[in-house]
Amino acid sequence: MINFELLSEKNFNAHSLDFYERKQEVKRVYRKKESGYTLVDMPYIEDWSLDKKRQVAADISSDEYISFLALDDGKVIGFVGLLKRLNNEYMLLDLMHVSQMYRGKGIGRKLFSLAKQEAKKAGAKALYISSCSSEETIAFYKAMGAELTDDPIKEIADEEPYDLQMICNVE
Q1: Over the stretch 155-166, which tens digit does the pLDDT of each residue have?
Q2: What helix, strand, coil percent values describe the chain, rounded to 5?
Q3: CB under 8 Å to 137, separation ≥6 — which residues?
């Protein structure tokens, strides 16, 4: 049975993502053109090394984050990490992933819903998402109600120039 829980010392530690399956096979990505964004072929495989998994584990369990986990028999199969400090009216959705074997089962939808609830509770008007530009990732966020923003947070957009900057109202 899959459980959704706020990350705590009881359900998460520095090695909780060691066997997490981050792998994503990307075929097409969005790229900005003069007339807006268009899909282009750009196949690659996104995956994380053990060091990257441990860095993400340290990040989402730090005091700077509010994180929720999807757990299957105590094993992390998905997570969302929100930065606690609001950026103007936005709460930043910094990391969100569902393990490869569990995608397409509503887990991401539930994690995103928890993120929206948390943002609303914190007084944010919207979630801010600097999203990977893969076709599947953008389709997911659009299905959740997110839209491209006309007013990106400059330092975030500059740091990840190929990401799409999106917002999702939490009302």
Answers
A1: 999 999 999 999
A2: 25, 40, 35
A3: 131
**Looking at the 3D structure of the chain, how many domains does it have?**
1
Q: Supply the range of the domain harboring residue 41.
A: 2-169
**29-63: string of b/e by CB count within 10 Å (b at 16+)?**
bbeeeeeeeeeeeeeeeeebeeeebbebbeebbee
Q: Is the pTM of this model over 0.90?
A: yes
Find the angle CA(3)-CA(73)-CA(48) to the nearest 5 degrees: 90
CATH of the domain at 92: 3.40.630.30
Tokens coding 32: 């900005």
Q: Which residue in the block uniquely carries the two structure tokens 């992390």?
A: 76
Secondary structure (3-state) at 121: helix
